[in-house]
Amino acid sequence: MSFILPELPYAYDALEPYMDALTTEIHHDKHHAGYTKNLNAALEKYPEFFDKSIEEILTDLNSVPEEIRTAVRNNGGGYYHHNLWWVELGPNAGGEPNGKLADAIKKEFGDFESFKQKVNSAALTRFGSGWAWLSKRSDGTLIIHSTPNQDSPLSQGLIPLLGIDVWEHAYYLKYQNRRNEFVDAFWNVVKWDEVERRFEESTLP
Length: 205
Ligand code: MN
Prior knowledge:
The protein has helices at residues 21-43, 54-59, 66-88, 99-109, 112-125, 172-175, 179-186, 192-201; strands at residues 130-136, 142-148, 159-165. By secondary structure, the chain is mainly alpha-helical. Strands 2-1-3 form a three-stranded antiparallel beta sheet. A hairpin with a 5-residue loop joins strand 1 and strand 2 (142-148). The site of manganese (II) ion has 7 residues, from helix 1.
């Protein structure tokens, strides 16, 4: 079974005005689809990997044959990160987290504004393409960090809970060089109930 591009769980214009419909369409139908296609193409020579989950593959990249490891790191990361991207976002979202996640954020980063500033800083200081993350360590504590390209927190033993895609393809049509405006707008479409669910339920494979 090859990896399947998940359907966008809402209309292309559902994230307007924070993310424009054309960017969402190209981001899902071209970029996410491209990572999916290239991941499947890379794994064709080693079809035993189709029996694993993408989380299992990214957590143990060393088990991937060297010949295809870079392709899997890049496209497998791109595939998995965008699977997360579309479900961590949504219309009628934003606001602040609740429950155990809110408590953990407060404990580690101070109030919500301070937390947001730290994530924004990780997003704005990521040179070139990559992601800023709120991730969970295996002991359940939180970390704010960033990764280049499509390198995955999973490959560092971290479970990504919330990511900001700061590749230019995520924002350039609407925001051009103004990554800071895109990062500010991002918070209006974060589906905190999904991030809370991941915080409480996700474990490393
Ligand atoms: Mn992207």
